[in-house]
Design a protein that fits this description.
The structure holds 3 protein chains of 3 kinds. Chain A is mainly alpha-helical. Chain A has 10 helices and 1 strand, in the order αααααααβααα. Chain B is α+β, with helices and mostly antiparallel strands. Chain B has a single domain, classed as Alpha-Beta Plaits (2-Layer Sandwich), CATH 3.30.70.20. Chain B is about 20% helix and about 20% strand. The mean pLDDT of chain B is about 95. Chain C is about 25% helix and about 15% strand. By secondary structure, chain C is of the alpha/beta class. Classes of the chains: A mainly alpha, B alpha+beta, C alpha/beta. Chains A and C meet through loops of A and α23 of C. The complex binds ligand MGD (2 copies), iron/sulfur cluster (5 copies) and molybdenum atom. One iron/sulfur cluster (SF4) binds next to α6 of chain C.
Chain lengths: ~290, ~240, ~950
């Protein structure tokens, strides 16, 4: 799949935002006043920014509200609802914190659950797609959630939790890369099944249907070099997981330390998310013999 | 409406004969021509005369080469458009309800005035049947020419999809695949029509007819009248004239 | 909540109005329904009633709307203001343009009409353009047939009075075995596809003989990946096998062909000619009476095995030749690249279909000898062939061989077999002979093109026996060049050989690019100057509708309308659109008005003819006789009562013959743009011999009296040229050509290696082009839809070569021929003859043309094979460079090309690349709509 920079950027950032909101909601950090404003503001900023940005991607953003109508069946619609509900439900909590008041933990906790649900919905948009075998697995929501939680933990300075999440994330990433490599083949779709000609013999593309480009090829057929992949995988695991875990483990959670850890984590997250798209192969590529 | 309707008895669709398709692309431009002025927004062409033209088409014709184990390699032309799946994932993923499957005949359509152009349905379709129009920002797909097949303004015989009407070889057949007695269903039964990528569990309505077996027929070799070299031309001529 | 779906209007109004006319994206000429919405063309679909396409359209036809809205359309007449080829033009008015043309042409007509050469390319009004040229008085006219398909057309006409090509078709509804030789698309684009569809629906067998297995060959049930240029050998080997097994239709041969005609054996000027009676009728021996009688004597049974005074029949000559071991499958297998066993199997399959499964119709008919037949018995084997066999230097003989094979099977004009389309059958003797006698201020002495029957019909000047035509058509180099040699016009005019010309007028032919061999050299010839600074071809007038490559090389451009904006006439006097069961003709008419200062070229010619005072185009008072082309179509009579259109003549009810009807065009429009006349049922088969057909043809005005004839297995006109080469004619060929004429002008089909093969092992590969179904030559690239399908063309390489050179996807290669080299992208194809490479024709474009951006893929990756092909063969040591053409017809031998290939670094651009030409039209808008 085409790793559109905007999508990579904003899924990562909004994931982190909802992770931060979730941890704030759970009271992982309990800032007050200006600090609360900064913490919650960062969470809201990342989450809302990500959501807004995703509308840039739309062909007709002015109709975006319609996306709320199909929550019964559509994960994208559910994501929309979950996000809005999260933001609404956590608003009083945030406001209270900024104003120095405290609401009963129930408010924050339900908001946190909603935040994680939002992340889960986002992940399910990808995970539900049979057409992209690399995504079509429970590991996808697990990864998204671990990213959210790791990010949230770093930003809230919860070193212990953060270390665990980061390590889990590393393991999940490693495993997802490995599993992903075999996912397409495991699905069983080949140029032979795509065309139904497999029974006759070995099938290859002779001539494409068009020498000009089209939406499908731009959007769903993307090539990334092997060397590039392995380098980025190392960056992803190192930066998203191992380095932040080490920092959280060995360095006291001073704000600048957390900022550095978060920055390093983000680098890893971007690398991982870029790979998430770039490595994902859509079965439509079979028609173009472009796997 | 994003939920799939209860399965309809009538399942309109296409049957494409890969034994007959010569890969002429007539169905490609006939489809473009009809849909450029019909259902929904026109089908745009970006950089139409430039270095990287990129337009919206609802039907594309591939060419594959197949190497059988014990026969000469073959070329097979392969038209590809929406299969109007019974179990259409492109419908259920749609957040706006723009993508829907018609309850009465199973045609899968996009209600362009509700489409936000998120592209998710195209991601969900295994067959590359959906293309987001770069100019209009809405999702485009084969409509099965819903604005032809029921169109009272067209003569009865023209109430077929534009691609079917134009296909010079008659490789494209349109009909009700829900009715086992329809011409298309019988064709599918006779010729072993099949589904594309059944492992995607989309239950396509459209079917493809496989190429027939190729190669020499079993014919007994011709027996010479006699050994011309041995008997000479005159002998051959005599023998030939006996048949006359 | 239940399931909801939006309301949908399933019956939208399609358009305001439908106007029916004829497509022009290729020479197939399908009927189209043009929909107009708010006065603009909004949709084009096929006309279901039309005889050619019956409602279907090809990819080009269905995107015709893009042709009308193309930004490449010329806007007004152009006069060159910079050097030729620079692309510097100014737009001028029509008055200026026509005034200029008259200033150039009038003196030529008065003093030296041969100094105007008028050649047309994709012209579909040849009966009109040739008439114009004849009226002007120049001998120098032809259309593009000489580089296109003359081998096929001429071989068919000399052999049986019609060829596959446009003059006939398989009996699609009855044939059981259909064999396709060297066809990718052909002119009969939709009829062939409709026909293939019918065969497929019936489960009939289709076999492809073609080095490349794409398109029609891909759907064929079996494929013979023949080595290019060897089809003749394969066909003669099939004939060998069929003869040996006696699987030929003796009765058919005896009755309907010259198989029983006796050939003079005695040495002398008659040797090899037929024995004839005093009226000139060929003689046969009647088996019943044993008498020597004219072939058409009522009640006879001609004897194909007769011998009289040592003179034997054509059949004996044939059988003796083809039974020789030289034609045994083993002897030809290696050369053809096809196993002997496969050749045998093919022969057996043909014999089986022809003789074990005859088609019998209970339709009585009476033949020209007066004999009544109760039934029609047919041999359901059909062939179709086109440029794959005709675009080789042995193409004429190969095409003859195929026609002869079909006749031997008794499958021509029989049910299930090959059927003529009216006005064919029309044997060579019923066509005109060529005319080339010119005099200042006078029309030419007759039609330019035709069918010579002997050296006396060559277009040689009476005084010095030098070529009368600039293209050297109908000379000893290519005596039967029935369509002229368009590919030689520019080289000859440039060389001043046989003479210099003044003005070259071209219509609809992209001669500085894809329709010339040796493109770069042609561009140089067009811009080359004399010592005195004048262009060697001093003036070039060109009519195009679009900003093609050729535009930049002309001095005066007369911009045409598109096909939807003008009157045209698809006439029986010309290339017919008939089908076997009916005669048909059609019109185009302005279904929409041009939005710019362009004019239909035929109307411009009518206008010019009036201004020049060309006799048939002006009245006795010297006033223009025709207002415009539409007026000409209605009122011109070629013979009394016979005009361009056959329908609605006289009072509107006359068909074929009748006085001009002023309302004829309106009647055509009301009728859907065409007219069709059914062949009576009893006349539908055995047409050359069927009295009912002959009578119908006379009534229709195809000819003035019945003219039954027999098929020419043995082509006597060819023998006459051999005799001349042997010294027996008052016109004698130059000595250097004597042996070649003796060898190639054999009256029975032969095979000889294509001349291109002479370059030897240094160039081990054959290089071909194929027409893409979705493109028409150069002119599809301006079409926004079609160019997305074919925007570039790789060179397809067979597995053996691919692996030997270590090619991988996206690689490039240098391809070298004796004439030059190109550097191009390659792609792999397994279903390909192992010694052949090929690419799509005419995708490559010159930068800056066709209103495409200069970095368009057509100009950067697209390429032409034409750079590798020369109009002349390499020098052979005798100081002569022979034409790269068939020695009999002059047909350009595009497919004789031999090359070698090597892998090179990936390139930014295909080579050779030429500098951009400034566009004569403004740049296109970025996006559509
Ligand atoms: N390598 C290779 N070269 C080949 C061949 C091959 O097989 N291989 N084939 C050869 C053969 S058979 C042929 S017939 C030639 C064809 O070659 P051409 O006859 O040159 O065909 P086109 O390229 O279509 O060029 C026709 C010109 O007509 C113009 N035109 C289009 N519509 C109109 C119109 O309505 N009015 C006017 N006035 N002009 C119009 C187009 O813009 C174009 O410039 O190519 C030959 N060249
Ligand atoms: N779509 C479309 N239709 C067209 C045209 C077009 O440009 N586009 N052009 C029109 C014109 S002008 C013409 S002349 C006709 C030509 O129509 P075709 O005769 O179909 O011409 P080509 O496409 O050149 O195809 C020649 C075929 O012969 C094969 N071939 C080459 N050499 C040999 C050989 O030695 N033996 C055999 N058996 N096969 C061989 C090639 O592989 C190719 O398949 O098409 C007309 N129709
Ligand atoms: S129009 Fe018919 S033959 Fe041509 S590509 Fe389409 S399906 Fe195939
Ligand atoms: S082919 Fe694709 S777009 Fe069409 S119904 Fe099936 S999944 Fe949806
Ligand atoms: S692109 Fe349109 S139709 Fe497709 S999922 Fe998005 S809103 Fe629905
Ligand atoms: S049915 Fe209509 S919309 Fe669908 S591919 Fe055919 S022409 Fe296009
Ligand atoms: S074959 Fe195609 S381009 Fe040619 S006349 Fe017919 S529809 Fe037009
Ligand atoms: Mo041609």
């Amino acid at each position: 799949m085409h790793p559109a920079p905007s999508v990579v950027l904003f899924t990562v950032l909004s994931g982190m935002g909802f992770g931060l909101l979730a941890l704030l909601g759970l009271g992982a950090a309990q800032p007050h006043g200006l600090a609360a404003f900064l913490h919650w503001g960062l969470g809201y900023g990342l989450a809302v920014g990500g959501l807004m940005a995703s509308t840039f991607h739309l062909g007709n953003p002015q109709r975006a509200l319609r996306a709320f109508t199909q929550w019964r069946t559509s994960w994208l619609s559910r994501e929309g609802w979950a996000a809005v509900l999260t933001l609404l439900m956590l608003a009083p909590v945030a406001l209270a914190a900024i104003l120095g008041a405290v609401l009963p933990p129930f408010f924050g906790a339900t908001g946190a659950v909603m935040a994680l649900l939002t992340v889960y919905c986002t992940a399910m948009i990808y995970a539900q797609l049979r057409t992209v075998p690399r995504w079509n697995h429970w590991i996808t929501p697990v990864l998204f959630l671990l990213f959210a939680l790791t990010g949230g933990a770093i930003l809230t300075g919860r070193s212990g939790f953060g270390v665990i999440m980061a390590i889990l994330l590393g393991v999940a990433l490693y495993w997802s890369f490995r599993r992903g490599d075999g996912a397409f083949a495991a699905k069983g779709a080949t140029i032979g099944t795509a065309t139904g000609l497999g029974a006759l013999g070995e099938v290859r593309q002779f001539a494409p249907p068009h020498t000009g480009g089209n939406y499908l090829m731009k959007e769903m057929i993307y090539h990334v070099g092997r060397k590039h992949v392995s380098r980025l995988r190392i960056v992803a695991i190192l930066c998203a997981s191992l380095l932040p875990a080490a920092i959280l483990l060995f360095v006291p959670p001073l704000p600048w330390v957390l900022a550095v850890a978060a920055a390093i984590h983000l680098v890893g997250a971007f690398a991982a998310r870029w790979l998430f798209f770039a490595e994902a192969e859509h079965v439509v590529g079979l028609y173009y013999d472009a796997r | 409406m994003t939920a799939l309707p209860p399965p309809s008895a009538k399942k309109l669709g296409l049957v494409i004969d890969l034994d007959t398709c010569v890969g002429c692309h007539a169905c490609v431009t006939a489809c473009k021509g009809w849909n450029d002025q019909g259902y929904g927004a026109p089908l745009s062409d970006m950089e139409a005369y430039g270095s990287a033209p990129c337009g919206t088409f609802l039907n594309r014709v591939h060419s594959y080469e197949v190497q059988p184990e014990d026969a000469a390699p073959q070329i097979i032309n392969f038209p590809r458009s929406c299969l109007h799946c019974d179990n259409a994932p492109c419908v259920t993923v749609c957040p706006t309800g723009a993508s829907y499957k018609r309850a009465e005949d199973g045609i899968v359509l996009v209600n362009e005035s509700a489409c936000i152009g998120c592209g998710l349905c195209a991601w969900a379709c295994p067959y590359g049947a959906r293309e987001l129009d770069a100019e209009a920002g809405v999702m485009k797909k084969c409509t099965l020419c819903v604005d032809r097949i029921y169109n009272d303004n067209l003569p009865e015989e023209d109430r077929v999809p534009a691609c079917v009407r134009t296909c010079p070889t008659g490789a494209r057949h349109f009909g009700d695949l829900g009715d086992p007695d329809s011409a298309v269903s019988r064709l599918v039964a006779e010729r072993g029509g099949y589904d594309l990528m059944p492992e995607m569990e989309t239950k396509p309505v459209n079917k493809y007819l496989p190429p027939r077996k190729k190669g020499a027929v079993e014919a007994s070799p011709l027996a010479p009248l006699l050994d011309v070299q041995a008997t000479g031309f005159a002998g051959w001529l005599d023998r030939l004239l006996e048949k006359f | 909540m239940g399931y909801q779906q939006p309301e949908l209007d399933t019956s939208p109004k399609v358009s305001d109005e439908v106007r029916k006319t004829t497509c022009y994206m290729c020479a197939c000429r399908c009927g189209i329904n043009v929909h107009l919405t708010s006065g603009k063309v909004s949709y084009i679909e096929g006309n279901r009633d039309h005889p050619i396409n019956k409602g279907v359209l090809c990819a080009k036809g269905a995107s015709g709307i893009m042709q009308v809205t193309a930004p490449s359309r010329l806007r007004a007449p152009l006069r060159r203001v910079g050097p030729r080829g620079s692309g510097a033009f100014e737009e001028i008015s029509w008055d200026e343009a026509l005034g200029l043309a008259v200033r150039w042409l009038a003196p030529l007509r008065a003093k030296a009409p041969e100094k105007l050469a008028f050649f047309t390319g994709r012209d579909q009004s040849q009966s009109f353009t040739s008439y114009w040229a004849q009226a002007f008085g120049t001998p120098n006219y032809a259309a593009h047939g000489g580089f296109c398909s003359v081998n096929m057309a001429a071989a068919g006409i000399y052999t049986m009075g019609g060829a596959f090509w446009e003059f006939g078709q398989p009996d699609w509804d009855r044939t059981k075995l259909f064999i396709l030789f060297g066809v990718a698309e052909d002119h009969d684009s939709n009829p062939i596809k409709i026909g293939l569809g019918k065969l497929k629906a019936r489960g009939a067998r289709v076999i492809g003989v073609n080095p490349v297995r794409s398109g029609y060959n891909a759907v064929a049930d079996d494929w013979y990946g023949i080595t290019p240029g060897t089809d003749g050998l394969l066909i003669l080997s099939l004939i060998h096998e069929l003869l040996k097994a006696g699987k030929i239709d003796l009765d058919y041969l005896a009755r309907w062909t010259n198989a029983p005609c006796l050939i003079e054996e005695a040495e002398g000027e008659e040797k090899g000619l037929m024995l004839r009676d005093i009226l000139g009728k060929p003689l046969v021996v009647d088996r019943l009476s044993g008498n020597l009688v004219p072939f058409d004597t009522p009640g006879i049974r001609p004897d194909i095995a007769a011998v009289r005074n040592g003179n034997r029949t054509v059949f004996q000559h044939m059988a003796e030749r083809y039974l020789a071991p030289d034609y045994a499958p083993e002897a030809v297998a290696e050369r053809c690249g096809i196993d002997a066993g496969r050749i045998r199997a093919l022969a057996a399959e043909i014999a089986h279909a022809a003789f074990d499964e005859p088609v019998v119709l209970d339709r009585p008919w009476t033949d020209f000898r007066g004999e009544r037949h109760e039934r029609m018995i047919g041999r359901p084997v059909t062939f179709h062939a086109m440029r794959g066999i005709s675009a080789h230097s042995n193409g004429f003989q190969t095409a003859r061989a195929l026609h002869v094979l079909q006749i031997l099977l008794g499958s021509v004009e029989t049910p299930g077999g090959f059927r003529f389309k009216p006005p064919y059958p029309k044997p060579a003797f019923a066509h005109p002979t060529p005319h080339s006698y010119f005099m200042p201020g006078r029309p030419l002495d007759g039609p330019h093109l035709g069918f010579p029957h002997g050296p006396e019909h060559l277009a040689l000047k009476l005084d010095d026996q030098t070529p009368a035509r600039i293209d050297k058509g109908f000379t000893w180099e290519n005596p039967l060049s029935a369509h002229g040699l368009m590919h030689m016009v520019i080289p000859n005019a440039h060389a001043g050989d046989p003479y210099r010309i003044d003005t070259l007028m071209l219509y609809m032919a992209n001669m500085s690019w894809n329709s010339s061999m040796n493109t770069a050299a042609v561009m140089a010839m067009l811009t080359d100057k004399d010592e005195d600074g004048e262009y060697k071809i001093p003036r070039i007038i060109y009519s195009d509708a679009y900003a093609s490559e050729m535009v930049a090389y002309a001095d005066l451009i007369l911009p045409d309308t598109t096909y939807l904006e003008r009157h045209d006439c698809i006439s029986l006097l010309d290339r017919p659109i008939c089908e076997a069961d009916h005669a048909a003709d059609a019109i185009r008419w302005p279904v929409t008005e041009p939005d710019r200062d362009v004019r239909g070229f035929q109307s411009v010619l009518v206008d010019l003819a009036g201004r020049l005072g060309l006799p048939p185009f002006v009245t006795k008072e010297g006033k223009p006789r025709y207002r415009d082309y539409a007026d000409y179509i209605v009122n011109h009579e070629r013979r009394p009562g016979v005009g361009p259109l056959m329908g609605f003549r006289g009072d509107g009810t006359a068909v074929g013959r009748g006085a001009p009807n002023p309302a004829q065009i309106e009647r055509y429009i009301e009728n859907g743009g065409f007219f069709q006349a059914e062949v009576p049922e009893g006349a539908a088969f055995f047409k050359p011999w069927n009295a009912a057909y002959q009578d119908w043809a006379v009534a229709m005005g195809f000819y003035d009296q019945p003219q039954p004839y027999i098929f020419q297995l043995y082509a006597e006109p060819m023998r006459r040229f051999q005799l001349a080469a042997e010294g027996y004619h008052e016109r004698q060929p130059p000595d250097r050509l004597r042996d070649r004429i003796k060898a190639t002008m054999d009256p029975l089909p032969i095979w000889y290696p294509p001349f291109g093969d002479e370059v030897g092992a240094e160039y081990p590969l054959h290089a071909l082009t194929q027409r893409p179904m979705a493109m028409y030559h150069s002119w599809g690239s301006q079409n926004a839809w079609l160019r997305q399908i074919h925007g570039m063309n790789p060179l397809y390489v067979p597995t053996k070569v691919w692996e030997a050179h270590g090619f991988a996807e996206d690689d490039w290669a240098r391809v070298t021929s004796p004439n030059g080299e190109i550097t191009v992208p390659v792609a792999h194809m397994a279903a390909l003859n192992e010694n052949t490479v090929w690419t799509w024709n005419a995708i490559g474009k010159r930068k800056g043309t066709w209103a495409l951006s200069p970095d368009a893929p057509e100009a950067t990756e697209g390429f032409l094979l034409n750079h590798l092909i020369s109009e002349l063969l390499p020098e052979k040591g005798d100081g002569q460079r022979w034409l790269n053409s068939d020695p009999i017809t002059g047909q350009a031998a595009w497919f004789d090309l031999r090359v070698r290939i090597e892998k090179v670094e990936a390139q930014a651009e295909a080579q050779p690349a030429f500098g951009p030409i400034p566009s004569p039209v403004p740049p296109a808008k970025r996006n559509r709509p």
